[in-house]
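does this look right to u?? adenosine-5'-triphosphate version
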Amino acid sequence: MATDDPMLRTDGLVKEFGNFAAIDGVDIAVQPGEFRSIIGPNGAGKTTMFNLISGGLDATEGAVYFDGEDVTDLPPEERIQRGMGRSFQISNIFGGLTVRENVRLAVQSRMRDSYSFREALFKPTGRYDDINDETDEILGRIDLADIAEEEAAALPYGDKRRLEIGVVLATEPELVLFDEPTAGMGPEETQSTIDLIEEVLVEQTLILVEHDIELVMEISDMITVLNHGQVLAEGTPEEIADNQDVQDAYLGGMTE
Ligand SMILES: Nc1ncnc2c1ncn2[C@@H]1O[C@H](COP(=O)(O)OP(=O)(O)OP(=O)(O)O)[C@@H](O)[C@H]1O
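got this back:
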């Protein structure tokens, strides 16, 4: 990638459903290493934007550039292969496998040129020192080494989220997309999930699509506020907090 390329850029992005533009000419540029949040009131277009970036939806107009390359027409799997990771609201975890097997499979999937999935799972573990070492390292980073032999399905909610982050990490993404990662969590679990994201994914560029404005104020480098499918405001948390348009549209919307 050229050094001055943003990690993720959208150019005149439009997504129409019938005659209705859910995303209506959005330009964003997220720099390498940045923690960007995309927020907005109900129906603003956040989920649509997430899906346009990840490839879950095709753009009606405009383009998505990842690492300086046009990925607008690439399916999600190819975007993942190029280094876009996604977490939450998609099931990355195999409940019937252990914690270790889940991480190992994800490490393996990245190295699939050297070994098949089947080999990774069923061949004697000692023969794959590189895969095992990396698996152990990730288990340590997500703090699940002690329960590595437990079945994923049996984990408490918070530990499942940790495992999901481990699975994403194993694919060595440059960019990780999160869609409301703390939805359904209480305050304590929300904080520990955010701490984990910040601690484990420190080198990655992060894009978080989120409803909770207080949460994004605390954790983001930059915030993009969407309203009616357009960028209403963009700036640091301080700039967004002071922005009258945002207060009118978003904070007003929250008290409905
Ligand atoms: N598949 C679809 N077909 C038709 N309209 C859609 C579709 N998906 C989204 N929309 C509409 O596009 C607009 C934006 O929806 P989107 O889900 O992206 O918003 P959001 O900001 O994520 O909202 P919320 O916070 O309520 O989840 C909404 O008016 C929604 O009804």
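Residues 93-172 form one domain. idk if thats expected tbh
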